[in-house]
Write a structure and sequence with these properties.
7 helices; two-stranded antiparallel ribbon; single chain; 137 residues
């Protein structure tokens, strides 16, 4: 399994890395969330790709990562995320919260899914504004 790394400046300047399997789990949940309102907005897909690229996934490899994510069950993705470090969980929570808002419409189904995933995966509590601020840094 490959390892995707990025130095991500946050409040504490964390250095995050994810295995390919972890990245697939994040993408699986992101895909499910982006479709929760019945429409996958182009900005949501663009954000998914941009974040994967930030972690070192090449454009050519992104398609295979999407394929891997599509074969993963949601429960398996949540189980993978639940075992991540606190710093990784903070990123996942912020990423999903920002993804939900990126199309300019925060749908109740997306919000409910974010809250459910956050609870099941034991993600930190944050507001949508906190998520957006985290991802902006």
């Amino acid at each position: 399994m490959g390892l995707f790394d990025i130095k991500k400046k946050t409040v504490s300047t964390e250095s995050l890395s994810f295995s390919r399997h972890e990245m697939a789990a994040i993408i699986q949940l992101a895909g499910a969330m982006s479709g929760a309102d019945g429409t996958a907005h182009p900005n949501e897909m663009k954000m998914m790709m941009q974040e994967a690229i930030r972690f070192g996934v090449g454009r050519a490899d992104f398609a295979s990562l999407l394929e891997q994510a599509s074969k993963m069950e949601g429960t398996a993705a949540m189980a993978e995320i639940a075992t991540m470090s606190d710093a990784q969980k903070r990123y996942v929570c912020a990423y999903l919260g920002t993804l939900m808002a990126i199309d300019g419409d925060i749908n109740d189904k997306e919000k409910a899914m974010w809250q459910l995933v956050s609870t099941i995966c034991k993600l930190p509590t944050m507001s949508i504004a906190d998520a957006i601020e985290y991802m902006a840094n």
